[in-house]
User: What shape does this take?
Amino acid sequence: MRIGIFTQWYEPEPGPAALSSVAARALVARGHEVHALTGFPNYPSGRLADGFHQRPRVRELRDGVNVLRVPLVTGHDQSSARRIVNYASFGLTAAVLGVPALPVLDAVWVNYSPITLALPMWVQQLLRGTPTVCDVADLWPDTMQVSGLDGASRLNGRAIRAVGAWCKAMYASSDLVTYISPGIGQVLATRGVPQARLRYLPKPADERIFHPGGVSLRATLGIDEHAVVLCYAGAMGAAQGLEALLEATALVNDPRLVVLLAGSGTQEEQLKWHAAQLGVPGVRFLGRLPQDAMTDFMATADVAYVSLADHPLSAVTMPSKTQATLASGRAILAAASGDLADLVRNGRLGFVARPGDAASIAAALKAAIAGGRGELARIGEVARARYVAEFSIEHTTDELEAILTEASTHPRDGVSRLRPAGVAR
Assistant: This one.
């Protein structure tokens, strides 16, 4: 098949921003022709990545994928206004400059976040009638209200209803809608998406980075070989609820515990100040690490911390660091509820604590320390097996390939409303 992938973020942008490129490479490896429509890389710093210069259109062949980049207003800070401009600018240029430059496609997979991806999606449908799969990884407008962006939590009812209506239009005009966690699928069903068009499609990890192996950084960081190391890597914002981890570490007050925090975000400096006030010497802030350092960072961990702030949306959220931890063969300490907690608890993949509850997180930390490194390594083996069975690139590509084939060969009746008469598939 000739497949299109519409996504604002793509390699060399790191972390979850790179997951569309993981899927694209896997489809190319199976003999498909893949065209990715994306922007110029600026995540997570908000600055244009080294070596890139914005022009109306730039084509590149990256790992066999035909990548078409269109310009956008860069930015990824705490300002909701600037973030909206960033999202809207890509949606507009992708629709006006990107879609007309693409070849005829058999199916398009649209990364629905941000929802301004609707613009190129709808233009593609109107011009060429291309069957479309909408991939829902974050629920909108819900995700805006817990993002920590200035003013986002104060969205009024009219704005929320407008965004909700926009999302429903995206679902309605898609042949199939994929979702990354069971809870999101349930929410989509309550918001009017027919069960017959919903498909579960979890995210994999970037297996070039997250896999068993790597070289532990314990010696480099001066960490005792018997210490239990908990690692966290990722954003440090309101949605992660990391203050409770610092408070839990202070409650445990065990010299055998070392906590390594890698990443940055809107609350990084506040967290450093909070750790200093609590007087927790076992906590270290490593800053943002390059992607190629993450294999060794995960090799240093006995258990990895995955947390979400206590909010109704958190119950259906599956952070990408979950799959990264499982792929690396490490136990999880999940300070979360809902889907993530169920996965860890039912799969015996680690420890579960109540989100934002320092005492509950401290109890989980004590349990991890009591089990020791040997027991944590055993749990890590179980975690790796679960990854291979449900989240691996091989498994998720099987599912994605089947979904795209279904959409292209059996498009939903009614989507033809967006297709001009006489357009060949």
